[in-house]
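Researcher: Hi, I'm a grad student and pretty new to this. My advisor asked me to get structures for two proteins we've been looking at. I'm not sure of the right format, so I'll just paste the first sequence and hope you can take it from there.
Model: That works fine. Here's the first sequence with its structure tokens right after it:
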Amino acid sequence: MTYELTPWIVVAVIAAGFLAGFINTLAGSGSAITLPLLVFLGLPANVANGTNRIGVLLQTGVSTEQFYKQGYLNWREALILLVPTIIGGVLGAQIAVNLDERAMRLAIAGMLILTFFLIILKPKRWLVGRAEGARQPNRKDWLTWTGLLIAFFGIGLYGGFIQAGVGIFLLVGLVMGIGHDLIHANAIKALLVLAFNVFAFFVFLYNGQVVWLIGIILAVGNIVGAWAAVKFATREWAQVWVYRLLLVVVVVSAARMLYMALV
């Protein structure tokens, strides 16, 4: 595993981290930027997956704290969803560390393609907020909540496995499953991603799949991007442009990762 950190590469990594932190906080799939970049710099896909978690942890810590300060975080509901999401995240990370590099690249490409089709499905739901006709399930509706807990376990499993795109899946559950508007859903999403990545990160760390130096450099951009995203979260123009940019990034990253896996 060899890589060179020239001043220009450091700047590029920080810039990618900023963009990823911004997109992750407002929507998701910011790792569609950072994972291919880390692989391009020479990190094996599994190591890139583990190293990327440093920035994810710090950016979600910042965004969670900022959303909480602004009164958007529903702690009670978030805590209900934490347990299945964390369990899924740990299991997913364990699966990821045992995959070979080609399989990891194919998996990342496949999930990015799936993410693209998911975010173009009824885009107004992501830009406006609460889906039309959506309702929050009654807390006594055990059947509905059982289904939601199973769904969030599955999302945690995927997030621990790859991370790229997990924010979108969490928003699907929070907006379309529970009925939150986008900003409240993003607040809970930030806490959930933070929680399961704490445990997933230690799985990668234990297996020697974390490069601290480049991970910390990436995290600098992640933190600033997350902070800026929360500040602009209530401005519609910001979400519109992030949505458009996300579509482009996912397509380009999926194509590149698929090419690297097949060639």
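Researcher: Oh nice, that was easy. Here's the second one.
Model: And its structure:
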Amino acid sequence: MIIVRQHGTRFDDTEVARHYAHRAPYAAVSYEFLQGLVVQHRYVLDLGSGPGKIAGEMASWFERVDAVDSSLPMLRRGQALHAGSTNIRWIHARAEDAALEGPYDLVTIGAAAHWMDHAVVFPKLVKVMEKDGVLAMMDGDGPHQPPWQAAWVVFLRRWLERFGDKYDRARFGDAVAAYERWMDVAGRRTFLFDHRQSVADFVACQHSRATWTMARLGEAAGARFDQELTELLGPFAHDGQLEFSVQTNLLWGTPRSCLVEP
């Protein structure tokens, strides 16, 4: 987990923030469902907010949204994208260090908990949330079982090996879900929806992910990566457009101040 957290620094990059715009959204219905779980709609905290993917949606539902991220380029991007939402406070800080002003009725973390020190963050949340507050974890903005899945796995294996890494989806999933031991989980839901995106934007989206940032790939390898992926996806596109499903995963409950032993 230490190595995984160190990789989070790769988001402190203007190019990564720019490419983030090509990520698929979370399902609109997942936000509607989440509103029904929250008793009061005053203050919400979005940890690891990035450019406001969740915070921007929450702004229309809550009096104040505190969007916390350690990447200044991400926050600047968020401020530009959501300039009309004057109730979002953009806070440049690590989740572990941020000075939080609750009590929060809702805390959201979107595919970012694996970058955080759970032993610091979750006990901290216990202290700043309302007694009936909800902690919601959201993830899932990539293709869900697309037609090119088999070729995609082969592509990932080959490129990861070039960097001395191995494709191990199960181990990565375990690392991402490790935060659950710091929660009393109340429920889980998945929301599937159809998404359409150009091949060019799908390829660009990959450079918003820590593994495939252009800073890590380098100019020459980055160009090869883009070319190979474009060629892989070509047969699955219609007029340059890909159509695929995206599955938003929502888990909610309350944070714990101590670890749940397996």
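Researcher: Is there anything I should tell my advisor about the second?
Model: You could mention this: The beta strands are 43-47, 64-69, 88-92, 104-110, 129-139, 183-198, 241-255.
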